[in-house]
Specification:
Length: about 325
């Protein structure tokens, strides 16, 4: 699907005016390169549009550039993703926007010249997408949803002094493995034991989750596309077992019933990604544009879930909360 937003003025009204006016218009157009060319941006999403894409598009609309936006949704299908990359290569774009670790890595493997702006990639350095935060050393730059796992788990400790923490993730998603490894390294620091639950599809939910009730005190859901898509089904089980939960994705608190979220705002990440795209349209190399994380985060609390599972949220957490779901 192609969505266009254009600020290019139409000159048809001026037909028949004096030649001098046409010269003036030509000079104005020459002095304003943002209006002299239509830029084509290919937008690749991994699991459909999110508020990150809304932020990206909204920020671009305010630039004065004439942009043709071609949207592609891989639907968490690696084969479809490869088809999309092939399609984009046949009709080259000025810039490619990509959501998530899996899609970004796939695009970078095949696209070496076109500038790439990634978004919502938790660990871009560790996953090999960029060489460092200062310079990618390739044709990519972008915005990361990286957040301190230690601070997330400390917030959860304020609510329940867990000794055994479960983590649910898709073992096929590198980003999730990195988050698992970080949580594992925090076992001694925060004095807990990590128990892993690997889910690669809906079929795994009834097989793996029934044992949770007797095995863990709380559960952590990292920023994992598979877990997000299956969020409602997973949280039905977790809340039925009355297990306190923490997510790295804000929408899972309001939409799926997760108890706590300590998260970046996807909309703001989209705006940051758009600003990097604008620098590229102004002829700056992606490798010269540092990749970024947000400098502020949101705490979300679902009071409906707290009541359902019989958990008292401390006043110290409620005071810090940016969003309370009732």
């Amino acid at each position: 699907m192609i969505s266009l937003f254009s600020n290019r003025p139409s000159w048809n009204f001026f037909y028949g005016f004096l030649p001098g006016l046409w010269v003036l218009l030509f000079l104005i157009a020459s002095a304003a390169p943002a209006f002299s060319k239509q830029y084509r941006i290919a937008m690749i999403t991994w699991r459909g549009e999110t508020t990150a894409e809304k932020g990206f598009i909204h920020e671009l609309k305010n630039t004065g550039y004439d942009i043709a936006l071609a949207k592609y949704n891989a639907g968490q299908d690696v084969n479809r993703l490869q088809e999309i990359i092939t399609e984009i290569q046949k009709t080259p774009a000025d810039l490619i926007y990509v959501f998530g670790t899996t899609a970004t890595k796939a695009v970078l493997l095949r696209v070496k010249d076109t500038p790439i702006v990634f978004n919502v990639v938790t660990s871009p350095v560790e996953s090999g997408i960029i060489a460092s935060w200062e310079s990618s050393k390739n044709n990519a730059t972008g915005a990361s949803n990286k957040i301190s796992t230690e601070n997330q788990l400390k917030i959860l400790k304020k609510v329940i002094p867990y000794k055994t923490l479960g983590i649910i993730y898709n073992p096929k998603e590198q980003n999730s493995i990195i988050q698992r490894d970080i949580a594992k390294r925090l076992e001694n620091t925060l004095k807990f034991t990590l128990k892993e639950y690997l889910i690669s599809g809906e079929k795994d939910i009834p097989v793996l989750m029934p044992g949770m009730k007797a095995e863990i005190d709380a559960v952590f859901l990292p920023a994992d596309s598979m877990i997000i898509v299956l969020g409602k089904k997973i949280m039905e089980k977790i809340n039925a077992y009355k297990i306190p939960s923490l997510s790295s994705v804000g929408s899972m608190v309001s939409e799926d019933g997760v108890l706590l979220g300590f998260v970046p705002k996807y909309y703001e990440l989209g705006r940051i990604a758009a600003r990097k795209a604008i620098l590229i349209l102004n002829h700056k190399k992606p490798s010269d544009i540092p990749s970024s994380v947000l400098d502020h985060y949101h705490i979300s609390v679902n009071m409906k879930t707290a009541q359902e599972i019989g958990i008292q949220i401390p006043l110290s957490v409620l005071i810090m909360a940016n969003q309370i779901v009732r």
